[in-house]
Amino acid sequence: MKNISTYVMISILSLVLVVATAFLMTAADAPIREAGGYLPLIFGAVFSWSTAKANLMEREREVRNNARVNFTPSRAAA
User: Fold this and answer.
1) How many CB atoms lie within 10 A of CB 21?
2) How far is Cα 44 from Cα 61, in angstroms, rounded to an integer?
């Protein structure tokens, strides 16, 4: 998963799943309601990880692009 759009899509999907599992907390059955309490924690962890990874990849890409733009042979000789 080296493509940043993959991480962005995972973070968006995780956020949607967290909202969807919030509705499980209002289910009539006790086991479903109990699972609804733990699923947002799991999805929140995946959401946080993928968002942080996407931000770090974007920062790395910007640093790499800025280094290429700022470097010129005339500056290196000076």
Assistant:
1) 19
2) 26
CB-based contact 4:52 (threshold 8 Å):
no
Encode pLDDT of 6-15 as tens digits. 777 877 887 7
Q: Which of 10, 18, 13 is nearest to 54 (CA)?
A: 10
Tens digits of per-residue pLDDT, 36-49? Answer: 777 777 877 877 88
Tell me the two tokens of residue 63: 């640093």
Whether 11 and 47 have beta carbons less than 8 Å apart is answered as: yes
Q: What is the pLDDT of residue 20?
A: 77
Is residue 38 within 8 Å of residue 24, measured between CB atoms? no
